[in-house]
Each structure stands twice: as structure tokens, then as C-alpha cells.
Design brief:
Length: 221
Amino acid sequence: SCTDSPVILKILQNWVPRVSHYFDKVHYTYAGHQIVIQESIEHFGAVVWPGALALSQYLEANQEQFNLKDKKVLEIGAGTGLVSIVACILGAYVTATDLPEVLENLSYNISTNTQNMNMHKPEVRKLVWGEGLNEDFPVSTYHYDFILASDVVYHHAALDPLLATMAYFCKPGTVLLWANKFRFSTDYEFLEKLCNIFNTTILAEFPESNIKLLKATVREN
């Protein structure tokens, strides 16, 4: 049941235009911190997508409802790392994950933006959706308070493994926050599957950007 009355928002211009010799660096401000993100044109995961902006903005604005301080947070499909950096600034123990080819740029962004701050040191790890979860993230050791995901659903073949990954990490007590630009019918089909598995609420919509932000928790009988 995804019938809710979400709050209607627009993405704020939180990035600062800079005259820069490097076309690939974007400066943002979240939670009182300057964040500099290096994008790369080689990979999907190396560009800041609008869902990441929406989720970062929402986390910053709703710290009382979703208090990340000292919480264990896993980001799947972290891309450039913006959301993970914001979660880190908000006080979380962050593990940012993505495909192997994205990790170098992801690690660079996360380390440069968090190295001199008084906060929990974030971790960057490889996570291929649906693969090696039991080996790499055994349930006995790993429990997350929050799973964050932004713009992980688009025209790709790994939607079922993605859903399985969300289901794997979403234990009782875990909150999944997923922001996504809805472009294709497959996006809505994924949403429907998510609603069938989890208790799902649409927290916010950004109509100008076609973004929905959802909260999902595991169904407890």
C-alpha cells in the first residue's frame, strides 16, 4: 500500500557556482559543510544524480525524524559518495558501497571530504547487488540502522538483484530510505514490488524533478 500524502518539495540549489579550471568538480553545501564532489564521465556511478540531491537535502532537513548520529548506515550504489558524505557529517557510521569500477572515485570523494573532520571514519566497500552478500556482509556481524539508496533504479538489468539486496539488509529495526527519479514503467514496477515486500511510505515528492522519496521497513508479523 503506497497511498500516502507525501510532502511536496523542490530541490534547493545547494551547490555553489565556482569558476574552476576543472569541469568535473561540483561544490555543494549541506549541514553547514562545503562538499566538493569530483565527477567522472566514464561511469554511470560517477555523476551526481538528482535523487542524491533530494536525499541529501531531506536528511539534512529531517534530522529529528531520522537521527543518524552514531547510527550504522549503509549506502548501496553510492556513486560519487555525496549522500554518504552528508550522512557522515550528520554523525553516522557510514559504509559506502558500489561496483568495483566506481570505488576509486568514490573513495577519493569520501576521503577528501571527511578526512579533517571530527566524525566517524567512513568505510568504502565493494558491493555487487545480489552477489556474495552472505560472505561479504554476514548477518551475524552486520546490522544497519539505515539503508540509503538514490537513483539506483533506472534502465538496467539488475533490478531483481537490487531488490534482493534491499531485502537482505533490511532487518527488523532497519529503515530503508530510497530516492529515485521515476522515468520508466520499470521504475514503477520496481516500486510495486517494493510495496509488496515492505511496509512502504512515500515521504516526499519533488514533482519538478519527478523524484519520489520512500521509506521502507520490513513487515513484522
